Structures are given as structure tokens and as C-alpha cells.
Amino acid sequence: EHPGDSPVRCLTERCVQVLLPSDGSVEGQIEPGIRHKDYFFDHIFNSVDRSNDKYAGQREVYQTMGRMMLKSAWRGFNTCLLAYGQTGSGKSHSVVGTDTDPGLLPRIATKLFEIVAEHDRRQQLAQKNRGDIRGVARRKSLAHGLR
Predict the structure, then answer these.
(1) pTM of the entire structure?
(2) Is 79 annotated as a binding residue?
(3) Which of these ranges, 48-57, 107-116, 121-130, has the smallest mean pLDDT?
(4) I need a surface site. Which of 4, 45, 101, 102 has the fewest CB within 10 A?
(5) In sequence order, which residues have a C-beta less than 8 Å from that of residue 64 and are 6 or more positions away?
């Protein structure tokens, strides 16, 4: 889906095809006569052409990948974010983003801190409620002459 004669084509939502140069300049080609290699991924995002209906901005990338990574990490699983690609292809932009359009890491970190704060608030509320229940039980015991 890249314009022009790009050596990379999106075949499906999970498959990219890389066309090899016809001049034989690539060492270790797959097989003689084979001029392309297909790569399969969990997700492929188009962040090149905003007019394309499959365009994915930072928010869509976070919704698809970041939330899943955060959920796994919160459950105690290791997660890894790998950004791979040609120089200037947008790896840093996808991972870090900008002040006005944050990338995956700032969005994940922000949400993680929100979850931790909410978890702490719930823990404090639960402790307060346990204390309140104990206090009521003590008062009832004292009112009935029990100690």
C-alpha cells in the first residue's frame, strides 16, 4: 500500500512483502529466482498516509498494542516492545511520540501510574472500611458489656 515503486508492500493486515533488488546486490537471497520475502506480524500499522482508511495514529497503536502490554504487565507477565525498521521509518516516533501526540511508552507509563494510584486508593479505602467495621464491632461489644 506504499505509493510508487516501494520495495515494501502490505499484502494483508498481517503480512508485508519485501521485494529484493533484481541486481543481485542482496547477499544470502532465499532461493535463486525468488525476488521477494513475506513477513508475518501480529499487527501492521499504516502511519504514512493520513487519508488512507487504514491509517493508524498514536492512539490507535496504543489501543491495539499498548493496552494489551499494560494488561499483561499488570498481571505479572514480562512484556517487550520492539521497534524495528529502516532509519527514519518512525520507530522513535511510535515509541516516544511528541508532547502533543505521545507514543506507546508515555501512554503506557501514564496509564500505569493511573492504575497504581487507583489501586492504592482502593487499598486505602479497604483498610479504612476494615477499621470502621472493627470499630463498630468494638462499640457493640462494649455496649453489651462484652470485652
Answers:
(1) 0.61
(2) no
(3) 121-130
(4) 4
(5) 43, 45, 56
